[in-house]
Amino acid sequence: MNEILHIVQSQDLKVNSEQDVIKAILHWTEFKPSRLLHNVSTIREMRCKRFKTLTINKFESNETIAISDQSDSKPQNISSDNREQYLGILLSKARLCLVSRESLEMLLCNPLVSENKMANDVVNKALLYKVQIGKRNGQWPTAAIHRNESDFENVAMTTKRKENGDLLLQTMSFPRNNFLHLDVRCLIGREFVAFCTMDNILYYFFMAQKENQGHNASVYAYRLIDNEFKAIKMYLVLKYAKFYVTVIDDFIYILPSNGKVMGRLHPVSESFVSLPTVPADPTIKDGQAICHVINYEHMILAFSSVSEKGVETVVQCYDTSQNIWTRLNNLEGPAKGMTSFRDDHFTYILQSNGDLWKMVRPQSDSLDLEFVANLWSCDWSLVGAITFFDKLYICGVRSEMLSRDPRLSKYLPGIFGEIVYINSELTETEIFLPITLRRKYMF
């Protein structure tokens, strides 16, 4: 079983498609070793009877002939007939999210799957990933990671600023453990930019001031199709300052750091609407802007520092289904320099002081943050974080203090088998986003 499991989950497995892996798992599960054992025993029994008969006819004396009856000996290390008990485990290690929706629906109709609770749950989870675009935004689950021989690769999208100020897009390959160039033209250097991914498409937003706009600026949007950026028609004017974008289902929400206006863009239809503003908070001064924005299920969470010292963080939550803002419990530690990421089970918040939190639901109608661990003790401004299998990759602004931190965690038992720290030279325009791209566009 361990050998079969190792083959199914191997990154180096070479197959035409993941459908071949599923077929192999089903064939292995259906195979009955006892049938082979029965056939072998029958053949041996027949051979022994023939041998006895021939021997007795040849020797008419009353001598006792010692014959070893092989029919009673059973082959060793033959797997149990109850292979169905392993079906759910094997399917959970396959890349079901890379299989077509139609194939998954057919798989659910297979009696081996429909009558096995774990297998049924695993396939249904993959089917939701294919059907609901919200499941495909942000972090990919393990079941959606392409193997090393695939035409696609799960990578981190990053940027590198050139000497003239332009931004060069590049990717980080996790299996190859190095940075790759992306066959895409450079982006013109802008002071305020934002990136997000939706259904494995990269979206790029920037501000540009026109005449008579004063302290305001227009927001422009582009999306990366194959290896070319194409403009999206939209009209939005915001204060010329840092802004954020985040994705809920098939909408992109645009939120400036001062929280005065928020917009919602549907990139497919290129429709845009304005939404309620972030409610004023008496504990937040005008100069203390939103520092980080994330999405969680159908909600948007905005993090701001309570005071200039940054010892406590205000967490505001916008429910897109009800179109209202609410306040969550304050979070200990700074909001500035934080980041967020996901794995197969939770959404995490990671602060610059090394504190790691996860989103939990104490009750069905409530949302809270639960402390997990402290990964380091110094202050490290973060760019982004991505999980790849059981590894956590954290990217932040280059820091000499981090490498000398005696409390720097290299793994987190039961959660992350390894933690990889990546130092970056950039700050405001740097990104570290999970995305799946064709290998032919990276070199």
From TrEMBL:
Domain of life: Eukaryota
Coiled-coil ranges (or none): none
Record's keyword terms, sorted: Kelch repeat, Repeat
Pfam families assigned: BACK
Keyword Repeat: yes
Membrane spanning residue stretches: none
Residue ranges constituting the BACK domain according to the UniProt record: 2-47
Keyword tRNA-binding: no
Name the record gives this protein: Uncharacterized protein LOC129923214
Organism listed in the record: Biomphalaria glabrata (Bloodfluke planorb)
Native organism taxonomy: Eukaryota, Metazoa, Spiralia, Lophotrochozoa, Mollusca
